[in-house]
Amino acid sequence: MTEALSQERLAKRKMLLDRVDAIAETLRASGAKNEELGTLAPEAVGALRDAGLFSMKLNTALGGAEVDPLTEMMVLETIAYHDFTSGWCTMVGATSVASMGSFLPPAGLDRVFAGGHIPTASISFYPGGRAVREGDGYRVNGRWRFNSGIKHAEWSIGGTLIEGSEAENGGRPIVIYAVFPKKDIKLHDNWGGVVGLRGTGSCDFSVENYYLRKEMTFAWDLLKPQPLRGGPSYLFPPFSYVAKEHGPVAIGAARRALDELITLATTTRGTFRASKLDERQVVHRFIGQTDLKIRAVRALLHERYAQLFEGIGAGKMPDAAAIADVRAAAVYATDIAIETATQVFHFAGNTGLHHPHVVGRLLRDLNTAGLHQVMSDTAYENHGKVRLGLPVDPMS
Length: 396
Known about the structure:
The protein is an alpha+beta fold. It has three domains: 3-107, Butyryl-Coa Dehydrogenase, subunit A, domain 1, CATH 1.10.540.10; 121-218, Butyryl-CoA Dehydrogenase, subunit A, domain 2 (Beta Barrel), CATH 2.40.110.10; 236-388, Up-down Bundle (Butyryl-CoA Dehydrogenase, subunit A, domain 3). It has twelve helices and seven strands. The chain has helices at 3-22, 24-37, 42-50, 69-82, 84-103, 106-112, 238-267, 281-313, 320-348, 350-353, 358-372, 376-388, and strands spanning 121-134, 137-147, 155-162, 175-181, 186-188, 203-213, 217-218. Helix 7 packs parallel to helix 9, helix 7 (238-267) packs antiparallel against helix 11 (358-372) and helix 9 crosses helix 12 (376-388). The longest helix is centred in the C-terminal third of the chain and has 33 residues, at 281-313. The radius of gyration is 21 Å and the shape is globular.
């Protein structure tokens, strides 16, 4: 890496982290309101948009920051520390915008980014759509789940299988990503009764017998992505691209939970306890051990993504083993965060029990994130196969 490039990245990193600091109180204040509304509060959406955080991964040609992986991870971690829902929605929103900016063909790009406007968007990797080729496009039917941030999104993206395409793709159907304007989708308001991540508004959406021109679709190969614009960040295969998002938001939330416990331990005393929390050895051990776990998994993710990014810059693409490695690390970060929030909730006692305390919210949200994070068992299994020297299927 040249000195000039290094300085540019560091300057961009500082700029974005400073912007997060500037809106930190807005994000923190929105936490309970997000959950109450069942979607990210308007003031949080506005703050994140105005700070350029939804566009931090978008290529610079379209007005984005096009950050390197370490900057992205640090920014998402910091947002999630202040408010996990905001971190989650920024994670999904930034990927949605960046994927369209990198992979859409020119005609589709002109429509989505018309007049230089950078939109908000949501994405469902779940292949809930079915497409049949028709003329210059596809006839699409489908319903997509887990569309975090869709209520403030202007565009929605859904993974879609092309029917009858198996023969062209080694027996597997071809998967494309279909891009729909919000006015053309049916939104199913089915997220209000969930236990956690309620503030993400991750509702289903559907289309029926919808004609979609080919220019409003893009491919994102699982091993060899072929972006039409942008730098090396967009060469990450999808599973490794999103692992560097899930890990940091979990780390930020885990750190927030631990800091909440430290505050409780040093400033409060329970009515029926014989001793304060900061006088209990079990609390000392938990805080010390958990701090080390959080720092360790954070360092691992930073180390591996720095290595992968350097390799991509030198023309070496991540293979199935590397993808399995970072996916497993991201899932492990989420597991550590869940363990942290659960134990903090236990130590917090009556304090965390009362709604809308942040400790209770983190417990609910992180456990839901663990369920929401796709194929966690498979991530560990594939990592185990790598350690045993066995082949890994990148499609699994």
